[in-house]
């Protein structure tokens, strides 16, 4: 594989911006002038204006803008401003003044970290001509401990502006560090490719392995070369590439061609030899950015939707997921275990299911695997919460269709209520309730977790997702979102808090009156929020811990509230005894009929009554006005006839 350019410029967009900093009189300005003018000038201003190098100076043909800086106290603000805008930083020291080198590790490099300047750093020793033969020094020996401590240093170089030694190389290395950075690709301490780089290269390998035989044939290798570098490989070159790999790594080549192991070895070899541009060219040709993630233009454009619309996977995407589940279920046990799931996501930057809120959100098998239902449910949850990431993850694992064909936006919930039905396949239920009421136990039971003997408070929002198979009707995916008691007030302070909610469930401990009172308060607050914002939701009351004796007036209280607010009577259940009263089917049914079970507060009823009176008055006025108009018209006809007869 040959090297190649054509890479994206630095963060500045049309040029790589390199800021030169360091102690006073370490040769900063002379370094810049000599690079630009290609000869040494004895009279150089203390601080130069921005200097632009021609774009054809270096192979990548990306222009370089060099910013000179002053280390004086009065120019401190300007220095910080320039450093924060840098794509790369060149730190200078004077070769004949060891104290300026020591200042790099005692001041300059820690200062860059303090300012959170996360760009490549090139350390440059200037005025090499002033260091006499009586001061022999090994640059590697001097810089090795500093580079061990400060990994942001890409390279070190010494130069002389007077003798024009290695001046162009300084800014070439700086530009190269921006366009072809080492850090995202290679762990220099371990001397191995970084995991994210391996994952990206594996995905590229699979995309190029058209016959899916686990190796790149000569034809596939040549197609890869043409795609990335716009030039074919000669047969002798292909033989040479495979020979290099096979000599170092026998398993890198087999009778079918270059294996994944060999492909990765080649890239590690390029990087070790300083040819990072080769690997970066490959990555960028396949749409990757400097963070080794696919660029945004590889995915669906931003999704436009109202707050009460949600995003779901299309049938096409679900079918793809079913097929890939079968592909990676190597032991054919109907579940993806940890190793199989990791293999499935081995072409993505990371496994999203390892992160919150997905890691503990769905049902696992006895061997901690994901069933097909659990696998699809997890994707449904990610699509609901983070549709862009869901599409990204689909593309990473091999979804070949148009990314926009993987998802669709549902109808507005407000319109669902008007039409008195919902056609969603994924419903989200918010679970409210006071502490120790049984919210977490409800979520645990939904995903097959055993009843906990000890109470553990939920910190932050928690999700549980599973498939609900209905006796009659299509299968639905239900997402339960637990809202901790401490977070309810803040949650409801947002106008669109209920916009994504299909059903709200209010759980209380039926053996404790204070629990019921708090749950009722939450019900009223949620109902009031819905009435005020237009995001009204069906509500169900759950009387948990039915295995315990109810408090004295529990039945009367719950009956009164449910009747007053116009919703179903509380649903008794006991997660401890496994008696769930079909609660999850009932939640789904409530979501399917979004116009029912919507609670009304006293204030809401008063407003409705007022609007009815106003509407009746308007009808009376309009009827009266119509009668008056008709009467006036009749009078005019009568008057006209009377006049004509006389």
From TrEMBL:
<feature type="domain" description="Miro">
    <location>
        <begin position="424"/>
        <end position="593"/>
    </location>
</feature>
<keyword id="KW-1000">Mitochondrion outer membrane</keyword>
<dbReference type="GO" id="GO:0005741">
    <property type="term" value="C:mitochondrial outer membrane"/>
</dbReference>
<dbReference type="InterPro" id="IPR018247">
    <property type="entry name" value="EF_Hand_1_Ca_BS"/>
</dbReference>
<dbReference type="Pfam" id="PF00071">
    <property type="entry name" value="Ras"/>
</dbReference>
<dbReference type="InterPro" id="IPR013566">
    <property type="entry name" value="EF_hand_assoc_1"/>
</dbReference>
<dbReference type="InterPro" id="IPR052266">
    <property type="entry name" value="Miro-EF-hand_domain"/>
</dbReference>
<dbReference type="InterPro" id="IPR011992">
    <property type="entry name" value="EF-hand-dom_pair"/>
</dbReference>
<dbReference type="GO" id="GO:0016787">
    <property type="term" value="F:hydrolase activity"/>
</dbReference>
<keyword id="KW-0378">Hydrolase</keyword>
<dbReference type="InterPro" id="IPR021181">
    <property type="entry name" value="Miro"/>
</dbReference>
<keyword id="KW-1133">Transmembrane helix</keyword>
<keyword id="KW-0342">GTP-binding</keyword>
<comment type="similarity">
    <text>Belongs to the mitochondrial Rho GTPase family.</text>
</comment>
<dbReference type="InterPro" id="IPR001806">
    <property type="entry name" value="Small_GTPase"/>
</dbReference>
<feature type="domain" description="EF-hand">
    <location>
        <begin position="316"/>
        <end position="351"/>
    </location>
</feature>
<keyword id="KW-0812">Transmembrane</keyword>
<keyword id="KW-0496">Mitochondrion</keyword>
<dbReference type="InterPro" id="IPR027417">
    <property type="entry name" value="P-loop_NTPase"/>
</dbReference>
<keyword id="KW-0106">Calcium</keyword>
<protein>
    <recommendedName>
        <fullName>Mitochondrial Rho GTPase</fullName>
        <ecNumber>3.6.5.-</ecNumber>
    </recommendedName>
</protein>
<dbReference type="InterPro" id="IPR020860">
    <property type="entry name" value="MIRO_dom"/>
</dbReference>
<dbReference type="Pfam" id="PF08355">
    <property type="entry name" value="EF_assoc_1"/>
</dbReference>
<keyword id="KW-0472">Membrane</keyword>
<dbReference type="Pfam" id="PF08356">
    <property type="entry name" value="EF_assoc_2"/>
</dbReference>
<feature type="transmembrane region" description="Helical">
    <location>
        <begin position="618"/>
        <end position="638"/>
    </location>
</feature>
<dbReference type="GO" id="GO:0046872">
    <property type="term" value="F:metal ion binding"/>
</dbReference>
<keyword id="KW-0547">Nucleotide-binding</keyword>
<dbReference type="InterPro" id="IPR013567">
    <property type="entry name" value="EF_hand_assoc_2"/>
</dbReference>
<feature type="domain" description="Miro">
    <location>
        <begin position="13"/>
        <end position="180"/>
    </location>
</feature>
<dbReference type="InterPro" id="IPR002048">
    <property type="entry name" value="EF_hand_dom"/>
</dbReference>
<keyword id="KW-0677">Repeat</keyword>
<dbReference type="GO" id="GO:0005525">
    <property type="term" value="F:GTP binding"/>
</dbReference>
<keyword id="KW-0479">Metal-binding</keyword>
